[in-house]
Specification:
The chain is α/β, with parallel strands linked by helices and about 290 residues long. About 45% of the residues lie in helices and about 20% in strands. The strands form three sheets. The protein has a six-stranded mixed sheet with strand order 1-2-3-4-6-5, with helices on one face. A three-stranded antiparallel sheet has the order 7-8-9, with no helix packed on it. A three-stranded antiparallel sheet has the order 10-12-11.
């Protein structure tokens, strides 16, 4: 039995979710749905290889509301093939009309060895330029903040009281256990991940061997993870908590870095914390390189 008030999130694909599945999820105890919309531009969805249309996504949202879900998150992406600033703006406007409780927006990351990487290299797909993606980021912040959403992490916005609880555990670098095929877990310096294929995972559980791999982080890597994860949030890095956890101050661990970031306008000191500025969020990867 789930604890009273537990938040149970299930990720759903608009191309496969229907009222019957939504009802089953509700009856099983799911309290929050993360809907992988990505875009509400059919051409962009097609180029991105998605199996759903914009109307499918809108229909799924209504299905979830009809089944009683009052905490729905929508996942969007920036920098997709064929995506323009106007296309992105149109998607944001339609999403805001829905009144979702939470919005996650991630930039496209193209991994080597994927069909995307090959198609881009051969010129079959063209991504928006960096200037367009910067404009998307600016537009995103303006639209959501003016519509009552607050940014609590680089890629996540919500209405008051609807921040994703399990995500906050990650940003605070807490321990967690991942159950199911491909899930990741974390305890102290140890990371491990489960077998990726569902059939293999089920058989592995039966045999007591479901872990596919693991790694142990060095003390230096643990320092960096604590800083980077915390700086992803708008509350920033709690300096006292950092010292208590690692036994050294941030300035002792990374001499001169705080002053450098502040002087560049990438970070600011608040009472007891270091946090990124708006410019720092836009250039977060540059900041994180200091702690890798």
């Amino acid at each position: 039995m789930l604890p009273v008030g537990a938040e149970v999130t299930v990720e759903a694909n608009p191309g496969t979710l229907d009222s019957s599945k939504a009802r089953i999820l509700r009856q099983a105890g799911a309290t929050r749905i993360s809907l992988g919309v990505q875009s509400l531009d059919d051409q962009v969805l097609r180029l991105a290889g998605r199996i759903h249309t914009a109307q499918d996504a809108l229909n799924c949202f209504q299905v979830l509301r009809n089944e009683g879900f009052d905490n729905i998150s929508v996942d969007l992406m920036m920098g997709l093939p064929g995506q323009t600033l106007d296309s992105f703006r149109h998607t944001l406007e339609r999403i805001l009309i829905l009144g979702v409780e939470h919005i996650s927006v991630y930039p496209l990351k193209v991994e080597e060895g994927t069909p995307f990487h090959e198609d881009i290299g051969l010129g079959r797909l063209v991504l928006p330029g960096e200037d367009v993606q910067e404009q998307m980021e600016w537009l995103l912040g303006r639209y959501l903040e003016n519509s009552g959403y607050h940014r609590y992490e680089i890629s996540n916005y919500c209405v008051p009281g609807r921040a994703c609880r399990h995500n906050m555990a990650y940003w605070l670098n807490r321990d967690y256990v991942g159950l199911g095929a491909g899930a990741h877990s974390h305890r102290g310096p140890r990371r491990w991940w489960n077998l990726a294929l569902p059939a293999s995972y089920v058989e592995g559980v039966r045999l007591g061997e479901w872990v596919a791999g693991e790694e142990v982080l060095s003390p230096r890597q643990q320092l960096g993870e604590t800083v980077i994860l915390a700086l992803r949030t708008t509350r920033g890095l709690d300096l006292d908590a950092f010292r208590e956890r690692h036994g050294v101050s941030l300035d002792q661990a990374y001499p001169g870095v705080t002053g450098d970031l502040v002087s560049q306008g990438l970070a600011e000191m608040t009472p007891g914390a270091l946090r990124l500025t708006r410019r720092g969020f836009a250039l977060a990867n540059r900041v994180f390189m200091y702690f890798v």
